[in-house]
Amino acid sequence: MTESDLPALHPEYLEQVDLARLEPQPRVDHPPRILLLYGSLRSRSFSRLLVLEAERILKVLGAETRVFDPTGLPVADSVPATHPKVQELRELSIWSEGQVWCSPERHGNMTAVFKNQIDWLPLTEGSIRPTQGRTLAVMQVSGGSQSFNSVNGLRVLGRWMRMFTIPNQSSVPMAYTQFGDDDRMKPSPLYDRMVDVMEELMKFTWLLRDRADYLVDRYSERNSEHRLPEKL
């Protein structure tokens, strides 16, 4: 195939796969940095309790973790991005190499509390991208029967934020029955699934974090700096 067969392509910006960059050396060896977000401001928030259970598993697996408290985070765009809670969230996202998102299901989707956190995270902030290339695990809690509406919505959101969303996920129905008076999750297949998800997140984070910059390097972005203005 010749260049004349691809008249729209700028071949100088199309790169062949570099196998050496898929096996980076040296590898970073600090503990995977995982940020956990939840989606309710209730004093007994089941999305927060599920996140705290997940955090315990991640620590056992060797992760360094941070949990962001959305209390006091203003509605997106209602205040300048210099607001302390906004800066805290953005700095944690930049610090992270993987994230866990957990939202209650309300009216068939994620809550406004959860979505507001993501709405404060820009795709780019100067040359820094707070979410791109990070791994992501999604979970949800609901007050009724088993549902996957929130995790499905979180997957769409994760893709939009250019994250590597792992295949496994956790959905906890009738969450009020799954936690004891001590706010700990009871032993059950639902607990086991949450553990599965955290195991998988750790594996993908170890696998991808050294390769993320290369994996998300795009022809369109390399070419955009040199593209001539299109004719109207």
UniProtKB/TrEMBL annotation:
Residues 32-175 form the NADPH-dependent FMN reductase-like domain. Signal peptide: none annotated. Pfam families: FMN_red. Transmembrane segments: none annotated. InterPro entries: Arsenate-R_ArsH, Flavoprotein-like_sf, FMN_Rdtase-like_dom. NCBIfam families: resist_ArsH (TIGR02690). This is Arsenical resistance protein ArsH. It comes from Acetobacter lambici. The lineage of its organism: Bacteria, Pseudomonadati, Pseudomonadota, Alphaproteobacteria, Acetobacterales. The gene is arsH.
